[in-house]
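Problem statement: downstream parser choked on a complex file, so we are re-checking the raw output for the adenosine-5'-diphosphate run. The parser issue turned out to be on our end (a line-ending mismatch), but while we're here, posting the original submission so the record is complete.
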Amino acid sequence: SVDVELRHVTKKFDDVIAVDNVSLEIERGEFFSLLGPSGCGKTTTLRMIAGFEHPTSGEVFIQGQPMGATPPFQRNVNTVFQNYALFPHMTVAENIAFGLEMKGVPKAERQRRVEQALRLVRLEGYGERRPLQLSGGQQQRVALARALINQPGVLLLDEPLGALDLKLRKEMQLELKHLQTSVGITFIYVTHDQEEALTMSDRIAVMNEGKVLQIGTPEEIYERPNCRFVADFIGESNFLEGRVTEVAPDRVVVVVDDSFPVVAPGGPAVSPGEWVTLAVRPEKIHVQPGSGQVGVNGHHGGRVEEVVYIGTDTYYLVRLSDRVTVRARLQNRSTGADGRGGLAHG
Ligand code: ADP
Ligand code: MG
């Protein structure tokens, strides 16, 4: 069933349109990410779901109920912010219990639920410490425990791992995903980090300039970006201009630079003769190391101009013609990919 729905939601701050006619449905128990560059409207969208902001037009529904001007504490949601917002003078247990105390939950019940929440975020035995005696990752877990203790139907997370270093962030990504699966509640997760969104999400909404451009599973978004922005923002792409020469249900042939044909998967509505922009992932370009042979779909030879080793992979800068170069990526000690590109309108 649908847990959270946005129907034609727009938010203006004076003449700035922060969120522009956004509609989406988030299923119960889903890990749903809002992904996009800084300033695209992710936080504002989340704040409207939380009830800290209200739409200029459109409506937010939570569990089927229109929220109107319902205040945050009357919504079945809780928010975890990037900067934790823990009270430094209180112990970890007091921080976690704070919301329950405000609601008048009796002490014994509070203690029981704090213990449970600490176990959930793997901080058993840390209840009597102060937040500043904990590492950044541990503080973030306290913030999570504090949000989860209210047993919200929906947890809203705004770049919660943004302050952590890369290694810890990767660990916490897996932990958060595991936590979400085990508690089974809906997570709406805001991030500008495409890799983070791909790793954790059931579905992703890609945003830019207040608009949702595409909604899909990580695989759909990566394999079938629906526009140039998405193809560029998620993963890496080579953009090649070309003319469509053949259209079949399962394939489209585009001739790039009047010289070499590229076979793309079918799907987009294009016609022969039309100019299009192809987005080709670096790992979809065949490279046979040693032979100097490179090709898009294996149709075309190219010349390797630069080789960059990055550990797991090696990048090749390949010149396909006087005017066209592409970046190819080959996983080290592995065979190449299938050489099919993706198609996006220019
Ligand atoms: P993101 O979280 O994706 O970085 P935000 O939702 O914070 O983006 O902001 C979207 C746009 O709305 C930005 O242009 C931002 O400057 C503007 N904005 C956000 N909050 C306010 C506010 N309270 N007053 C005025 N402008 C705001
Ligand atoms: Mg933000």
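For whoever reads this later: Residues 31 and 187 are 5 Å apart (CA to CA).
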